[in-house]
């Protein structure tokens, strides 16, 4: 009976893998002559089809053999995306003109959770490894899950060293994991301060100045990421046994800041229970908050209709101008040498500064490489702020590292903001919950 159940389960996942993905986007327009220098490589091409057979794992060494590469992507990187999708299609068409023997099949996947990118990769790895995609674009905070499955193909022999050294420092840290370059960050995202220049003359760099200033400040107080940024920036550890006394002191300091901000009216009441910076952006757009902590991605989507909005670093305890950065990273999964080479060639094409700059500008995303960043963003105050932040950003810990702390921090924040516990007591209880 157990064997029969295993067969049924494997059949179920096989069907889902073949049919569960959203339909691939329509075929791109007719190929245009490429306007950028073509990397020296064997002939490779990219195209889209409404129906592409699942690739086999045996590919002939014959250079004329057609290779169908399957690439799983989140919505931001889809050819059908509202922003940047047309540019991506044009770039793929140019790639097809220049390299005629590899077809790229983009498959749109949910980025997170049950049925999301990493969940699917895990299930297929366990049940049907031959159905895994050749490459994928995943959140850097889930790379550790793929490392545990040994799914990440090293890139150091496939990409020029310049592709690594051109990355912003946090992207370099993300790319090199456990001494191995096994992913290539494409874009970076992070939280920063945004303020209305008509209502706020300058932003406070420290907690104390924020509290003294008393300007209404909207930030998601119940967000794990918001708390995590201050926790890591102040030296807090995500190893419960490392130095618990220091960790408790760090948590207490953050909770004290939250309590004082709530008490003197600095913390916008509407955001006290918000769990994501994404929820904060509408308050700033509608003028309900003159100063807010938002994600770069959300701000870039709204920036054109906010002519008086300026960016700045988030106030920190010591005034350090930094942020917590994560990336969307390209990973090669296939074990087939020919497919690995083809995937690497396409990756080199993607990260060309001119192409990445053009696409990311249209997609309203920030490139992970400095040269692409310089080409994608206008030389203005916002670009200067983000360049500074990305030059000294902290790398966001993985979701699995954050998980043991999230509930304890939530309980502590709510207990302090509702007046149930003093910051010292709430921090002590949080530490107990984490170390149990």
Secondary-structure element series: HEHEHEHHHEEEEHEHHHEHEEHHEHHEHH
Coarse shape:
globular
CATH topology of the largest domain: D-Maltodextrin-Binding Protein, domain 2
Radius of gyration, in Å, reads 23 Å
Unreliable segments of 5+ consecutive residues: 1-62
- Percent helix among the residues? 40-55%
* Count of alpha and pi helical runs: 17
Q: Say how many strands there are.
A: 13
Going by CATH, what is the homologous superfamily of the largest domain?
Answer: Periplasmic binding protein-like II
SS-derived structural category: alpha/beta
Biggest β-sheet description: 7 strands, mixed
CATH class descriptor name of the largest domain: Alpha Beta
Give average pLDDT, whole number.
86
Our estimate of the beta-strand percent is 5-15%
Distance between the termini: 39 Å
Q: How many distinct domains?
A: 2
Using the 3D structure, state the CATH architecture of the largest domain.
3-Layer(aba) Sandwich
Would you kindly provide a brief summary of this structure?
42% of the residues lie in helices and 14% in strands.
């Amino acid at each position: 009976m157990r064997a029969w159940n295993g067969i049924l389960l494997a059949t179920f996942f096989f069907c889902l893998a073949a049919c569960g993905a959203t339909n691939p986007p329509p075929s791109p327009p007719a190929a245009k002559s490429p306007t950028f220098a073509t990397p020296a490589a064997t002939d490779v091409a990219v195209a889209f089809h409404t129906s592409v057979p699942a690739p086999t794992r045996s590919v002939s060494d014959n250079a004329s053999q057609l290779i169908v590469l399957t690439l799983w992507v989140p919505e931001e990187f889809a050819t059908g995306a509202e922003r940047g999708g047309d540019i991506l299609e044009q770039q793929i068409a140019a790639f097809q003109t220049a390299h005629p023997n590899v077809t790229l099949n983009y498959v749109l996947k949910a980025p997170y959770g049950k049925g999301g990118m990493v969940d699917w990769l895990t299930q297929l790895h366990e049940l049907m490894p031959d159905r895994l995609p050749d490459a994928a674009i995943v959140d850097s905070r889930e790379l550790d899950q793929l490392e545990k499955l040994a799914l990440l193909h090293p890139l150091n022999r496939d990409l020029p060293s310049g592709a690594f050294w051109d990355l912003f420092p946090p992207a370099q840290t993300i790319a090199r994991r456990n001494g191995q370059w096994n992913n290539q960050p494409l874009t970076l995202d992070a939280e920063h301060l945004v303020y209305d220049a008509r209502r706020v003359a300058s932003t406070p760099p420290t907690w104390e100045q924020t509290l003294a200033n008393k300007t209404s400040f909207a930030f998601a107080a119940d967000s794990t990421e918001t708390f995590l940024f201050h926790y890591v920036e102040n030296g807090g550890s995500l190893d419960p046994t490392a130095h618990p006394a220091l960790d408790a002191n760090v948590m207490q300091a953050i909770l004290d800041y939250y309590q004082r901000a709530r008490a003197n009216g600095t913390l916008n009441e509407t955001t006290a229970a918000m769990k994501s910076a994404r929820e904060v952006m509408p308050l700033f757009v509608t003028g309900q908050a003159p100063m807010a902590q938002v994600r770069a991605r959300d701000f870039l989507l709204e920036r054109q209709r906010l002519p008086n909005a300026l960016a700045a670093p988030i106030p920190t305890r010591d005034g350090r101008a930094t942020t917590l950065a994560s990336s969307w990273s390209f990973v090669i999964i296939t074990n087939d040498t020919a497919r690995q080479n083809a995937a690497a060639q396409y990756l080199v094409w993607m990260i060309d500064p001119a192409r990445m700059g053009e696409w990311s500008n249209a997609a309203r995303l920030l490139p992970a490489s400095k040269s692409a960043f310089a080409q994608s963003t206008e030389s203005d105050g916002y670009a200067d702020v983000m360049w500074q932040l990305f030059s000294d950003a902290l790398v966001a810990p993985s979701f699995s590292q954050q998980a043991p702390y999230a509930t304890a921090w939530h309980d502590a924040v709510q207990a302090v903001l509702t007046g149930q516990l003093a910051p010292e007591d709430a921090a002590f209880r949080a530490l107990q919950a984490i170390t149990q």
